[in-house]
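Researcher: Good morning. I'm working through a list of sequences from a screen, and I'd like to move beyond sequence-only analysis. For each chain I'm collecting a predicted structure so we can compare shapes side by side. This is the next one on the list. No need for commentary yet; just the structure.
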Amino acid sequence: MGFRPGIAFIGLLASLVGLAALVLPGPVAHAQTTERVIVNRYTGLAIEGYDPVAYFADACAELGRPDFEASEAGAVWRFRNEGNRASFVAHPEIYGPQFGGYDPIDLARGVTYAGNPRFWLVVGQRLYLFGREESRDAFAADPARILQDAKVRWPALEQNLAREQAAAGSPQAMNSGTIKPSRPPPNCSSAP
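Model: Good morning. Structure tokens for this chain:
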């Protein structure tokens, strides 16, 4: 069997398409998770633009930069650097806040309350956000019991959020878009 130009052309075309996919980056990376995430209705940012990986890597709440963004769960996530963005894109289920950023103390009580990215804890290699310092402190005292209750109630609460979203026609379960200034958590050495 001799040279077949049609087959050679298809092979060349496939190689070029594959090379282009490796070399040309898209404008924004996309990750995947099933959690409903709180999004600022005015900016479209998840967790008010804080870098979710920084909670793990730097043990501090750090604002991300517009130069390093990823789109996931209907939200734009910001990061301090490309390494943090790449880590999140590879594992959003690990770095994204649990329960979509809702306060687990309130979820355990059967209500949804948006967490504040300045009130946080990493427990069991998972990030949790809290609406108030008191909630963070109560969670730290007994995370196992609170998580057990929150996990039982979360599916029904998440369904209620989806129904409210559909009724309101909003693109995502959103908070008010404003977070009052607060002092940094005790495990963070620098102010946000």
